[in-house]
Amino acid sequence: HENGEIEDLEVLVVGMGFGGIYLLYNLRKKGYKVRAVEAGGGLGGIWWWNSYPGARVDTSLPFYELSDEALWKDWTWKERFPAQEELQQYFQHVDKVWNLSKDVQYNTTVTGARFDQEQNKWTVQTDVGTTFKCRYLVLATGFAAKEVIPDIKGLETFKGPAFHTAKMPKGKGAIDFQGRRVAVIGTGASGVQVIQELGPIVQQLTVFQRTPNLALPMRQRKLNEEGEQARGKRDYKYLFELRKRTTAGWDYSYNPKKTFEVTPEERNALWEELWEKGGFNPWLGNFSDLMSNREASDLMYAFWRDKVRQRITRPELIDDLCPDTAPSGSPFGTKRPSLEQRFYEVIQQPNVELVNLNKRPILEVTPTGIVIAEGNNATKECSLDIIVLATGFDAGSGSLTKIDIHGTTGQSLKEKWTKGTRTHLGIATAGFPNLLFLYGPQSPGAFAIGPASAEIQGDWIISCLEDLKKLGKTRIEALTVAEERWAKLTNDLMNMTLIPTSSSWYIGANVPGKVREATNYIGGLPAYTKAIYDCSDNGYEGFVLN
Ligand code: NA7
């Protein structure tokens, strides 16, 4: 189609990360007239956008890939936790095998959508002028499509490149960090990765840290092609089944025992074992009360602290990196930990300065650097060439409310969710018929492995559209009472944990002014799968079909 022309589709999928890709391919296979739009220039969602040095997934293989044998049989991974470049190659492989790009309009951002009640169809506007008409609009825009840009005085006056980690210039105009003076603001997962990568190559790195990261060892390693991968692939079918049946999509769940049920020797033995395994093992393979019992969390914090302190050779950094007790707003386990490779060594390099923002806050950004308060009314300007904002995302709802969507009530989605997100099963919301979310807020989304969440929800959405077709219906809408129930459930589950005591994006606490509520359903993949299929088995309970 040409720009400006309206395409009349059964389904328009927005976003080509794992979720959108899975849906586009499988709906097309079933004969649907379906197309996709993607804001980026290629497939991969966050793996297209996040191209900062060191960007790497925190989920190991084979759990972080699609389960179709046609895709994995001829694909070989090089590392246990692949970097963005390798993930990009994987998505190109998926594109080739599944032949997706012919149905994707790239470099196109959906700006708004209106529901036509006469026809039960959506009209969808984009920033390039193309308009789509579709029966069902599926937003697979991911949990991290809206960046958090800190409100720092003078930021816009900086002369050099200043960008969020998800928006680093690519291709022509790409950034050369070699020998430059660089600032990184934020020490979350993205910050840790970019810091440990840049430290060794830049002239000077200044790290602005608000809260120390309770980073865990990644234990990265190369995968041996013939032996290890070929052997591993014999288990793939079993592993892909298994990932649907564990809480977060791994081949393990929490240890059924509680922290204080075992002897100190048993406890330490398990912790040492999990520490050696690396990855999220010390978090998601830990005792079952790690995230609900503050004493358990604090004891695990002490274990973590002592491990990290063994690597600190500059004692003046101990309080900033691994203080005696868990940092405020960050009990162990309540934030998604980063997986580090050599972060604690890099942060201690002579060319790296750690600025603890609680002691030395940023006063302003000038055209040439960042001015910080040094105490006793003294200030200091850090001279800089480049500023990297590793300041995170308006997770979950932010990816959806940034689109100007109007359903049947006159209220936009953003207006509807001002006082709190409301969805039925994390998939739909009242007043917005035929609008479906994949990997959206109040779904397992980012609290479970991405491809596993996406496939579980994607399969359900497909079976839902198939049922509607069989029943001769053209409209599905969530009921208010059902979404109130689901919001209560997702928040009740979250409130059973310590997460609400943290400043994590899991409860929207990282965005000033955002409602504090569960951004994800944390009841685990098996319980979620049961909930969505109980709903459809009971005649789409909580929805009205017309
Ligand atoms: P995160 O994990 O939300 O980290 C953001 C970091 O930025 C974190 O250290 C924040 O400190 C810091 N931050 C945010 N706003 C500010 C301001 N205004 N000033 C200073 N520092 C600030 O985002 P990531 O991109 O690292 O990771 C997101 C997810 O992607 C991650 O969980 C993985 O799933 C992959 P804070 O801790 O809030 O004090």
Topology record:
Elements: E1 6-14, H1 18-29, E2 34-37, H2 46-49, H3 69-72, H4 84-98, E3 104-105, E4 110-116, E5 121-126, E6 131-139, E7 162-164, E8 181-185, H5 189-198, E9 204-209, E10 216-217, H6 225-233, H7 236-245, H8 264-277, H9 281-284, H10 294-309, H11 318-321, E11 339-340, H12 343-346, E12 352-356, E13 362-366, E14 369-375, E15 378-383, E16 386-389, H13 398-401, E17 404-406, H14 413-416, E18 435-437, H15 450-471, E19 476-478, H16 480-495, H17 525-537, E20 543-545
Parallel strand pairs: 1-2, 1-6, 2-3, 4-17, 6-18, 7-16, 8-9, 8-16, 9-12, 10-11
Antiparallel strand pairs: 4-5, 5-6, 13-14, 14-15, 19-20
Helix pairs in contact: 1-15, 15-17
The structure holds ligand NA7.
How would you describe what is shown here?
The protein is α/β, with parallel strands linked by helices and 546 residues long. The chain contains 17 helices and 20 strands. The protein has helices at 18-29, 46-49, 69-72, 84-98, 189-198, 225-233, 236-245, 264-277, 281-284, 294-309, 318-321, 343-346, 398-401, 413-416, 450-471, 480-495, 525-537, and strands spanning 6-14, 34-37, 104-105, 110-116, 121-126, 131-139, 162-164, 181-185, 204-209, 216-217, 339-340, 352-356, 362-366, 369-375, 378-383, 386-389, 404-406, 435-437, 476-478, 543-545. The strands form five sheets. Strands 1, 2, 3, 4, 5, 6, 17 and 18 form an eight-stranded mixed beta sheet that branches. Strands 7-16-8-9-12 form a five-stranded parallel beta sheet, covered by helices on one side. Strand 4 (110-116) and strand 5 form a beta hairpin. Helix 1 packs parallel to helix 15 (450-471) and helix 15 packs parallel to helix 17. The longest helix is centred in the C-terminal third of the chain and has 22 residues, at 450-471. The mean pLDDT is 96. The chain binds ligand NA7. Ligand NA7 binds next to helix 5.
